[in-house]
# Entry
Amino acid sequence: MAEQHAHAAEHADHDHKPHGWRRWVYATNHKDIGTMYLVFACIMFFIGGAMAMVIRLELFKPGLQFVDPQFFNSMTTMHALMMIFGAVMPAWTGLANWMVPLQVGAPDMALPRLNNFSFWILPFAFTLLLSSLFVPGGAPAGGWTMYPPLVLQNGASFPMLIFSIHLMGVSSILGAINVVVTILNLRAPGMSLLRMPLFVWTWLITAYLLIAVMPVLAGAVTMLLTDHFFGTTFFTAAGGGDPVMFQHIFWFFGHPEVYILILPAFGIVSEIIPTFSRKPLFGYEAMVYATASIAFLSFIVWAHHMFTVGMPLAAQLFFMLSTMLIAIPTGVKVFNWTTTMFKGSLTFEPPMLFALAFLFLFSIGGFSGLMLAIVPADYQYQDTYFVVAHFHYVLVPGAIFGIMAGVYYWLPKWVGNMYDMTLAKWHFWLSTIFVNVLFFPQHFLGLAGMPRRIPDYAVQFTDWNMVSSIGGFGFGLSQLLFPYLIWQCVKHGKPVKSNRVWEGAHGLEWELPSPAPYHSWQEPPSDAVIARGAFH
Amino acid sequence: MMIRAKIAQLAKLAAAFAVSLACTLPARADSGWSLLNMTPGVTEISRNIYALHMEIFWICVVIAAIVFGAMIFSIVTYRKSKGAVADVTLVHNTTVELIWTAVPVAILVFMAIPAAKTLVKIEDTTKTDLSIKVTGFQWGWQYDYLDSGVAYFSRLDRKSDAARELMSGIDVNTVEHYLLNVDKPLVVPVGSKVRLLITGADVIHSWWVPAFGVKKDAIPGFVNEAWFKVDTDKPGLYRGQCAELCGRDHGFMPIVVDVRSKEDFEAWLKDKAAEQKQASAPAAAEPAATPTATAAPTQAATTG
# Structure
């Protein structure tokens, strides 16, 4: 201890910050690692987005103009993998790295070296996956769901796909363990579980989901691997296996996975709406229990992704009813957010705007989700653009807007500068308008009978596809504003003077100076400070 | 005044633009702008499905109107810029929270009952008049009339196939039923309960005809059942597509069902059976009446 203090005294800034590349490669600081996660996620978001642009370009009009159908299938497959595993999940882990220690009054994440490892796996995993674009046979083209037997027809990219999934899984599990350990062990004295901010709560539950289901995915893809190379027949009927079993295992992972992508967004929205309503969150405990119920239900609804495979009547009824049940805790959340605004004192800064867009547009995705739960109707919706519209409504204005809302909310705390509000509002309005132009017509296309994952379509689908593509290009281009805004904020932003950047902000992160010091909460906050930030 | 004149000018421009846009829309015969909703179809089941779809759609619209209305009300009314002061005591209300948990439960039960009834009807594959085995392969369908031995392949028609090549130079708008036409449609009798036994030859496909409300996966090694019964007054051609990603040409394996009167169907089946018998007769030893799907020549192309 004495040695440490003497050492600290030598540096005025108390930072011990290594300089140059060592700071990043050897990083153990939660803020540095969080930053790397977020930058990585942003790069993957643009690569995945470029793939989406190829898709929308080819679908602009009927007939094949630009790409071979096989390459088109690679694009849909890779777009999904990049966005889910490369953009959204690392972005959440990055936000957790930055915010969880600040919000629970901890000096850092509990396992800093593990933290370094879980991040540095990712660039290798995605280099491996992306390099499959250049191998014989092209990148994986069997859909991100990797259904056998089709996935086994991939060429040299097949083992690359499997191993990159393994790496992503390891990274996610390690990251999740770190979050759980930090939350359960490093909370400041007085930060009881029911005083924790909802972002911490939702991430705690997300982390448990990750630990529960990533090994299931790893198991499923390993079985694919042995089926392909070692003569097993887990999923081959000719050898006594069952291709549908893969779908059951995959979606047992896959459904909790979609909540992994959305629960932290619930947490962020639950922080932002009270701040800009200048009012505590309505029904804090109900929010926590609703999140836990959603997480529980996510384990018993998986087969609603596969109603057309031919399941027994009883199984279909069970999965229909369990799926419909999810509407109840989700409804509770939406009602609580709405009531938080009721009798508030609202202002509309960029984080609030994104949170409000989330509220409206995520609800639309929720409604179409309820429609999809109705099995007989699902027979008509399944594998059409209606499903594409549904999950993009919950993932783009849901998860992605949640991430952007979080970045706009906390960025001034991270860098100590305010961003260009006007430009951020432009980013918001362009994104919100174009995301609807992009995805709303896809409901029509799906209901009118256009299947998903096709590179070319019958001519009656031309009009709405053109609208959708125009929305796609507009949305893609507007996103370029986002990294520009952040860069401008870091380099030239106006310094924020106060700790509490937003007038109505509550919580421990707002008790620290802006920018947050390199090592925060080396002295745990006092009970009074914690109580001031908690909702009750 | 200046501003008002500008606005008027802008409004005129906008109107002119809207009119010109509206004029160009009906230019194409089968305009796609009006394709907004699910087809009610031509079977009792497809109409039941459509009714369920509309019912839940309107329930969602009503809930959305209430919830979005409440959100918009708060956003408009409680603005700080309008002097709104936050009521920080409003953090919890057990009665309200119980109501908005219980009411959705009731709505869900209300929706689940008709859905379950329809599902039970769909799953009833008994008392069928005719059984046809449907085999999906990369990339087309094989139809096997189990009782009469008639069997044939059904693929994308030649014209669509030529036009869909990358940079084919053919305007796809000139191709009739582009991508939705086949060389040999599935022929079935009107008003009969037709049972399909659906399987896959290589990878998973999905047989989907929206007008019948039937979508069922074609899984190698497994046989799925589905059925449809077209209204007696609705013979005609009905089109669909493969609905499960099945490789490179997934988008190019349409389904066409030719629904004929019972007499026409019987005559067609008889002709077809005779034709196939004749075709296989000179081949002597092996009766090649039922081609196997493994013969599909395209399969080797993508197997890595």
In short: The helical segments of chain B are 2-24, 44-77, 94-122, 158-163, 262-280, 299-302. Chain B touches chain A through 100 residues (CB under 8 Å). The radius of gyration of chain B is 27 Å. The longest helix of chain B spans residues 44-77.
